[in-house]
Specification:
single chain; 115 residues; alpha+beta; Split barrel-like; three-stranded antiparallel sheet; 13% strand
Amino acid sequence: MAPDAYRAAEPDPLRREETDLVADLRDHHPEFVARLVTCVAAEVPRPLPDPRKVLRIDRYGIVLGTGGSRSYLRVVLPRPVRDATDFALALHPLFCDRCYGDPDEMARYGLLLCP
C-alpha cells in the first residue's frame, strides 16, 4: 500500500467492538459459526474452519481458524459494514431460522444459498 493511501485510510468501524463481537460469536453462537462453515465448505480446502475459532472480525468479514498453526479462512461479507448494527444486519439470514435457506431472503442480503 502506498504511504498516501495508508494515511488516507479510515480506521475499521468495528475496531472498538471487535473483541466483544468475537467473544460473543465464539462463546454464545457456535451454531451460527457452524452455518458459516457449512456455507463455505464447498469452496474451502481442507481442513475446514473450527466453529469455535473465531479469530477476527472487521468491516469486510470474519476470520476463522482452521486448526493449523498458521491456517485461517476469511469469510467475506456481502458488503463492507458501517458499524456493529450493520454487521448484525449483514449476518441476519444466517442467524434467523426463518430466513436461513430461503433463497429470496439470502439474496436480499447478498448471500448465496447454503447447502
